[in-house]
Design brief:
Helix 6 (126-131) links the parallel strand 3 (123-125) and strand 4. By secondary structure, the protein is an alpha/beta fold. 53% of the residues lie in helices and 11% in strands. Strands 3-4-2-1-5-6 form a 6-stranded parallel beta sheet. The longest helix has 51 residues, at 2-52. The chain has 9 helices and 6 strands. The chain is extended and about 90 Å long.
């Protein structure tokens, strides 16, 4: 009986030692990961500071002309931080970006587009520019405001249009069926006016690494860069992302 009790005590002691070792290992790994991210943050912060101060020569020359259309995706909660949004837009304007698409899933910025355009000098809504056939001035920035509802509405209308065409085709050609391909979808979206410019570069300001519902048919050849939350945006990081895109050799085009 005493032998069984001693064996049980030894087993409990072994389990306790094992649990303690696992906890120590977990804390050690957590410490290493925290130190790694802290180090990365310090390096990125220092790098951003040097770039923003113009102390890094390779970032002084920026060929913004290679970016014909730039898109930024902002998380809807961060989109309510208008001071941050305006600061980002002013940075892009100062860099020389001419055509910009602004997206947040809930359409917070789209509802305030008149206020945003009024705050920016020499900026015009892309819809107004197309309707009035306004000339493209050197210092003028065109803004497009997009939300998730635009994508859902476009897909629903395109599906209805394809269904109507497919039904008519089957009725006129009895026994003949044609598969719906990506080309048909693109044609339907184009007929409905939902085929907009495809951004060359898309910058995502959000905690997560995804495009948060930005219309997928417009980013088939788009370079996507995650910039982190809007509250931690840096001018140097913005310059670095644009500079990297303009200096990378592109073997595939539109």
């Amino acid at each position: 009986m005493n032998f069984k009790v001693e064996v049980h005590r030894v087993q409990c002691w072994i389990h306790q030692i094992g649990d303690l070792c696992l906890r120590l290992l977990w804390h050690f790994v957590h410490l290493l990961v925290s130190l790694w991210y802290a180090g990365v943050g310090i390096v990125q912060g220092t790098e951003s500071y040097l770039i923003s101060r113009g102390l890094w020569d390779c970032y002084k020359s920026l060929d913004v002309g290679k970016i014909q259309y730039l898109a930024i995706v902002i998380e809807s909660e961060d989109a309510c931080q208008y001071s941050k949004v305006f600061q980002l837009l002013l940075w892009l304007k100062a860099i020389g970006v001419k055509h910009l698409c602004i997206y947040d899933s809930e359409g917070v910025l789209k509802k305030s587009k008149k206020f945003i355009i009024q705050r920016l000098n020499n900026a015009v809504d892309i819809e107004e520019a197309v309707q009035k056939n306004l000339p493209s001035e050197d210092k003028q920035m065109t803004l497009e405001f997009v939300s998730a509802s635009d994508g859902k509405e476009a897909v629903a209308k395109a599906a209805n249009l394809l269904l109507t065409k497919y039904t008519n085709l089957v009725s006129s050609n009895a026994g003949h069926e044609e598969a719906i391909t990506e080309t048909h979808v693109n044609e339907a979206l184009r007929d409905l006016g939902y085929i907009g410019p495809e951004p060359d570069l898309l910058l995502v300001y959000a905690p997560v690494r995804c495009y948060l519902g930005f219309p997928a048919w417009r980013i088939r050849y788009t370079e996507i860069v995650h910039m982190g939350p809007l509250k931690s945006m840096r001018y140097g990081s913005l310059i670095k992302a644009i500079h990297k895109f303009t200096t990378v050799r592109q073997n595939y085009g539109k």
